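Practice problem 4.
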């Protein structure tokens, strides 16, 4: 503009001073106008390129943020499944961009709808039409052709996919496995641990962080951003994160001949590339679960309840009632004496038994229905119980039942050992009492299965005793699938055995470990049983020869409740474990009394023991417990007319 102003000024001076060549003056003016427009166009082009660069940089940032946000969300969903967390609720975000899940441990998981890919870059402007040749006034140069379409908008879809014999999950990017610089898949979940005395801890999954490098390719870090490596595809090539820019438009056609044809207008801007989009998030419900479909993968998470402010693991164990409170009619409570001898045994996370004098045992199941409230189902009906207070030594429950509302106060009691429910002696030959020698093989009574069935009604009068079912026998000695080995059998390690047993009239499922080392401790098997329950305990099974040359089975059990540091390795060491702290042990002896066959002849007396259960097997058979020089186990099936020994159980601890 300054140059143009100068020239106009010069023209004015020339007109004043004298004659000048006006054609040359106007030609110079046209040149300066053209030069000025070219500079303005260049400045405008630079401004456009700068804005395009800013837009492209923001697109890369959004792409990276979306990828890492999806990785975090998927990892949280996998961890929720692994930790068995429940979904309390899910709420749509205010901007409608996704949902926030509230989990049962108080944490949240944010899930976003697939963000539309950024629009493709605009095509570059068409070049200006060429000048017409000098001559008659030329027509205007023809309009430049449209710029080419911009490329498809860039999107990224993060997911997981199973691979291998155990269907371990691995990270994917746009449907293909995410591979590191060495071509290895990146695991999203842990692998299975090797079995051992305790089982080695399985490998944990890895959580990548993604970014885009200057070449427009994906990079990832597997150490929280300390080091980075390019992501590769299955052919070893780098994986592109963003596409190329659109091509320039073609030049406009040349104008017809003229003195100086006017410049053709700029080519129109090429249309924007289409937006990428992903319908990646759907949430549906069943009566018990929330099903989340995210980036092509489905995650089923059970509905949960809010996390209690109490440590519910403290609920496990035995609680003895020490006070009752009833409503006073004005928001207060009246203190009353407890129900004498009343206790609640919370065996595991869903099962328990209520005990009260003289020999009553009422099994129950309980389910958490709110953060501090349980629904308790018993044989006689159901209650709701709300925890008012819970610590290591005290428990207060507000109980609502058909009888009304009351508060029950408890103090921590002693967890019963399952072996303490077994009578110390066999039934005598008359079937009306106990023998007085716990190991003698020639003093016990012998009974057919048909003879013991009617005895169930009157043995209760002995003091709450009963003839055990096979499930109750299994609470003491495992079944034939996991026999207790003795003698010179080879080394045996049977770990993580799932067992279903009955204790205090309540059926529970627990896990156990068994170990037998004949070289170190012949005739002996050790076990860690009732893992996952309040009755977790160490067990020792010994086939023992007494001074008269006859044998008996000795079973010893020691409670490990509140002693988490003791494991199977400790239990298997006889001198270091079993010869110390014996005052805590419960011991029962089972004489090898043999059995009597159909003709009344006594068989295997002094070497083998046979004990009936109350469980029939059909077709003239029944089930019991058996032991001998080689093994001990329940689920031993024999003819019901054979006469076996009889050992009673009780629903209350036998001191």
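Answer key:
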């Amino acid at each position: 503009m300054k140059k143009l102003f100068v020239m106009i000024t010069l023209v004015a001076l020339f007109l004043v001073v004298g004659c000048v060549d006006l054609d040359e003056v106007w030609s110079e003016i046209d040149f300066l106008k053209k030069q000025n427009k070219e500079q303005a166009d260049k400045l405008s082009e630079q401004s456009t390129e700068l804005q395009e660069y800013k837009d492209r940089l923001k697109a890369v940032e959004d792409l990276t943020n979306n990828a890492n946000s999806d990785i975090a969300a998927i990892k949280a969903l996998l961890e929720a499944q692994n930790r068995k967390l429940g979904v309390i609720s899910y709420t749509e975000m205010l901007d409608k961009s996704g949902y926030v899940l509230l989990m049962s441990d108080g944490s949240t998981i944010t899930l976003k709808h697939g963000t539309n890919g950024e629009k493709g870059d605009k095509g570059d402007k068409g070049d200006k039409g060429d000048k017409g040749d000098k001559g008659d006034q030329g027509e205007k140069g023809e309009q430049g052709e449209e710029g080419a379409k911009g490329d498809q908008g860039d999107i990224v879809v993060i997911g997981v996919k199973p691979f291998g014999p155990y269907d371990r999950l691995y990270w994917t990017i746009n449907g293909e496995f995410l591979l590191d610089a060495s071509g290895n898949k990146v695991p999203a979940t842990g692998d299975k641990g090797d079995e051992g005395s305790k089982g080695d801890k399985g490998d944990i999954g890895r959580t990548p962080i993604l970014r885009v490098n200057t070449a427009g390719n994906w990079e990832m870090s597997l150490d929280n951003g300390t080091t980075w490596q390019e992501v590769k595809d299955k052919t070893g090539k780098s994986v592109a994160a963003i596409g190329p820019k659109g091509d320039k438009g073609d030049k406009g056609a040349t104008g017809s001949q003229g003195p100086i044809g006017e410049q053709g207008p700029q080519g129109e801007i090429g249309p924007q590339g289409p937006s990428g989009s992903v319908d990646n998030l759907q949430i549906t419900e069943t009566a018990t679960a929330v099903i989340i479909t995210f980036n092509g993968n489905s995650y089923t998470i059970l509905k949960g309840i809010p996390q209690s402010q109490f440590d519910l693991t403290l609920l496990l164990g035995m609680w003895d009632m020490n006070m009752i409170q009833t409503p006073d009619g004005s928001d207060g409570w009246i203190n009353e004496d407890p129900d004498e001898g009343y206790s609640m045994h919370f065996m595991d996370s869903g099962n328990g038994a209520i005990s009260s004098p003289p020999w009553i045992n009422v099994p129950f199941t309980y389910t958490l229905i709110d953060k501090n409230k349980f629904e308790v189902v018993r044989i006689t009906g159901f209650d709701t119980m709300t925890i008012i207070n819970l610590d290591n030594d005290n428990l207060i429950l507000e109980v609502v039942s058909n009888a009304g509302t009351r508060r029950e106060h408890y103090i921590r009691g002693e967890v019963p050992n399952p072996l303490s429910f077994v009578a110390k002696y066999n039934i005598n030959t008359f079937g009306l009492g106990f023998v007085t020698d716990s190991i003698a093989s020639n003093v016990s009574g012998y009974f057919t299965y048909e003879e013991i069935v009617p005895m169930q009604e009157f043995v209760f009068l002995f003091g709450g005793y009963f003839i055990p079912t096979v499930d109750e026998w299994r609470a003491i000695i495992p079944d034939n699938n996991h026999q207790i080995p003795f003698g010179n059998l080879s080394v045996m390690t049977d770990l993580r055995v799932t067992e279903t047993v009955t204790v205090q009239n309540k059926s529970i499922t627990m896990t156990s470990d068994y170990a037998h080392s004949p070289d170190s401790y012949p005739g002996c098997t050790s076990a860690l049983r009732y893992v996952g329950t309040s009755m977790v305990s160490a067990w020792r099974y010994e086939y023992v020869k007494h001074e008269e040359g006859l044998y008996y089975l000795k079973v010893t059990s020691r409670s490990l409740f509140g002693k988490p540091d003791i494991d199977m390795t400790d239990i298997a060491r006889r001198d270091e474990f079993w010869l110390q702290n014996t005052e805590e042990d419960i011991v029962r002896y089972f004489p090898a009394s043999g059995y009597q066959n159909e003709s009344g002849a006594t068989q295997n007396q002094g070497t083998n023991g046979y004990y009936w259960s109350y469980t029939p097997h059909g077709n003239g058979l029944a089930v019991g417990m058996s032991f001998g020089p080689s093994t001990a186990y329940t689920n031993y099936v024999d003819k019901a007319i054979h006469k076996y020994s009889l050992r009673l159980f009780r629903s209350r601890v036998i001191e």
